[in-house]
Structure formats: structure tokens, C-alpha cells
Predict the 3D structure of the following.
Amino acid sequence: QVQLVESGGELVQAGDSLRLSCIASGRENFNRLRMAWFRQAPGKEREFVAAISWSGSSTYYAESVKGRFTISRDSAKNTVPLQMNSLKPEDTAVYYCAADRSLSQRVSESYYYTAAVYDYWGQGTQVTVSS
């Protein structure tokens, strides 16, 4: 079992930066969890934002955030930060941290984009970007 707790969401203005954090705790080995961030805006479906591999050597981003957002992981602290720069009003959403405990060695890039593969989810943190 893994518990995920997100933090860092707040109301900011367009163009501002924000850093979200997700801390993982529980019995799973953090270094064997693929981690991701998703978001859900009002009236819309949950969508993929960014993901990171076990080692952190591979990262993946939605086209809408590529070049603005950066995902990383800190194995010493069991955290997964999401640095968000140049925020836009369309980034407004609840942001969720997710963890995949599958031990499959090789997965495709599209695997990371799929919400259904993630076994654990946090409660979310609200990010609001005003214009």
C-alpha cells in the first residue's frame, strides 16, 4: 500500500511559477514506483500531465505542458516535485499524483499516459491561474 499526499497548489497569476510536491509513504519501494502527475479541470476528464521512470532517467510530458513543466524525483525524500513555469489560465485544475507499482521491465511511452495503469492516487491539490 502507498499513500500519496500532494501539496503546493494555490491561486497564481498567468506567467507565474509554482512548484507542486507529492510525498509517498507506505510499504512499497519508492524506487520501484513509476510516478506521474495528472490533472482534472471542472467539467473535463482527468488528463495526463507528466511522468517519470523508476530511475528518473526518463520523463514524459503532455504536449500542452512540454517546455514549461518539469517532473523530477528525490529518492532520499520519497518525493516527486512538479515545477510549473509560465502558467496559463488553462492550467487551472486539480492536480493529482499517481503511482504505478508494476514491475514490468519494459513499458511503452504510451503506458505512462494511461491513468488506468496507476494503482495509487493522492487526493489532489488545486491550482488556479488567473488571467
